[in-house]
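Thanks for the sequence, V.! I ran Aminopeptidase N right away. Repeating your input here for the record:
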Amino acid sequence: MSDTATPTVIRREDYAPPAFLIDTVDLEFDLAPERTVVKSTLRVRRNPDAQPSAHLELMGEQLEFIGAAIDGKPYANVRAHEHGLTVENVPDAFELTLTGACAPEANTTLSGLYVSSGNFFTQCEAEGFRRITWFLDRPDVMATYTVTLRADKLAYPVLLSNGNLIAEGDLPDGRHYAKWEDPFRKPSYLFALVAGKLVALEERIQSGSGKEKLLQVWVEPHDLDKTRHAMDSLIHSIHWDEQRFGLELDLDRFMIVAVSDFNMGAMENKGLNIFNTKYVLANPETATDVDFANIEAVVGHEYFHNWTGNRVTCRDWFQLSLKEGLTVFRDQEFSAAMSGGDENEAARATKRIEDVRVLRQMQFAEDAGPMAHPVRPESYVEINNFYTMTVYEKGAEVVRMYQTLLGRDGFRKGMDLYFQRHDGQAVTCDDFRHAMADANGRDLAQFERWYSQAGTPRVSVTTSYDEGTRCYSVTLTQGYANGSPAARETQKGPLHIPFAIGLIGPDGADLPLRLEGEAAAHGTTRVLELTDTQQTFTFADVMAKPLPSLLRNFSAPVIVDYDYGNDELAFLLAHDSDAFNRWEAGQRLATRELLALAARAAAGQPLEINPALVDAFLRVLTDESLSPSFRELALMLPSETYLAEQMAESDPAAVHTARQFVRKQLATALKGEWLAAYERNVTPGAYEPTPEAAGHRGLKNLALSYLSELDDAAQAVRLATAQYDSANNMTDRSAALSALLNVQAAGGGDVARKALEDFYVRFEKEPLVIDKWFALQATQRGTAQRPTIETVRALMGHPAFNIKNPNRARSLIFSFCAANPAQFHAADGSGYAFWADQVIALDALNPQVAARLARNLELWRRFTPALRDAMRAALQRVAAEAKSRDVREIVEKALA
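Predicted structure:
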């Protein structure tokens, strides 16, 4: 629906079971780009658990009605309308046949059935199936599907759908057909079809029970050489899920298909996963280390949905985190295992740090804004707007807390009971919680508040040490950070917070921990269960005053308030055995310094760096006992976006000035050490996308980035140019180009121009690489003479730019608006005017993509007055001109 009527608010409390159930679905497609005819035959019966209704109401959008029949006879009591189809006066059980048509070629929303590069694809989550045929398009209506696809054989030689291929053959008119059967009941959002000119990389493997499985990765022919990593990731995912959770692939085949026009990252359709090319295609020349890691994670995520989302699905869209939060947790655990296995705690900690950085920068900000909502939302206008960081990333933290409270074995027991109880069902977050509680004999009633309360919890910590009794007391007090009114309305009582803690002695060693009342010490990290507003925990036999290591491994998604001194943070950075908290200490130290400098910059005062920060960076940079990947993360300054959010009034210009000052000071003070790190971490020979090699490249390229900040950047230019020219992988080539852009922005001449031109010519036939070319220019610092927005506007007219392609729009428009805060928040408001132009343009083409861009200004009230006024004006303009409920929900909530 894209109209200007007052949108309907859907509320969780209004859930009612469907009046009818559909047991089987038989679909027939006559595929043609301009007009595809769809015939659906449904076995329908009344739901005995629902209120009776004389009429069957089916959802449908942008469909052409051709005809209907009940039990094989034409049926006239059917009324088509804007939002669906009413079939009047139906019997208790019947076979309903509906014939209709849709226009895939004209479908720019990429929801439903659409055409990309001459091929057919579908995207049905959340409500795309109703754009294909009329249906009870809701996740609690589950049926088995048989699908027949018919199309021109020359134009569409490959015909795919869910499940197992049961028949195929030629038709007399130059067409052919394929018939697919999915034996597992599923909701309509998991339906998929693909038709076109595609080729596949195939592998046959044996499952844990000895059954042979066919795995296929389908791509356009010119991309076949970029599929090996995705296939390997799929194989690793299958084996890991068998070993970790005892879950086996249940179909005879499993297919991945890559498409360049896709609104999201990927989709877990049963047995036929459809992916954005960004998360399938990779070889050393075209993909970075981050791309390789992301492909492995996303392939794992979508495969893991086969059980957590498909075999057990969500009853309604309010339960979205039941599948998404759970599956994000599973893919995080998988990626941690792939990076070093269960034995390599440092590798697992690096993955944990990366995940928490994303959570803090994006989800915590969401909690503080007008779109704040619980992990299980209470209402929505447009469900596509609730595929959020809260549902995914905070949802994953909620699942992780079960494992922290119950242990890995207890969590596995809960998972086993969950599948035993609910396989083949559409269920709720409460059903998952009950399985965890019942399997472990635990009362987790209070834990429900994690699902129903919005906002970021805050835990204040006070400590005291009694030398006489050698007791150390820790008092934890929980509340909430200053969030939005939307969040505060949901906050009803204290949460059940697992709070991991360690105590570090004066010598830097962890102390054994014995709580009062215990007979003996148990370990050096303890998980305290905070369930009241305030609780005190007392440790006995503490021989000297310790330093607390708080919230180890980030055991709960909370903000911790504890007044560490700078020297204490430096001590933790040097000694904490918990790698996450070691990183956290460095980030706190850097954040404190950067915010103080930003305040001075805003006041026009001179800037001077604290030598303690330089010393801390020096120790980490030169500590060869730390892995390169950990040092890379520890030596990255907090992002400008994160820093601005920590201010009472966000001032992006002041933050940028402070951060660039610190980068330059660190580059100058540690020039020799950066050069040494660069040289020590070169990775000669053939490219390998292993975590170890990626860690070396990451630290080397971070060193190059710092060196590019020097006043005399001649050496950095020589290093970057040589690296660009000799690179045998995209990680090093793009990092070198980024360093040259840094030098150019600092007044180092036109040093990046030649490399930018070469990059484009070299990769102009590789769309994903050209996306990187656009993004690098959109995120460059710019100069007073030529602000980045001028470059972005010029690139909008480049022949390779196409706003209809979500990846291309994200690479240029989103990168500038979301990842270049200093330039986007220009004092003249030009960034906001550009944002409004693009949201309105995208809204007419693809409301889902437009709504994602619209969220860039939702925190406008937190900025300085001049920026606030300009943002409000841009939001008001979008509110007046946007047509879709997707965008209007975002901007109206922001302005409310």
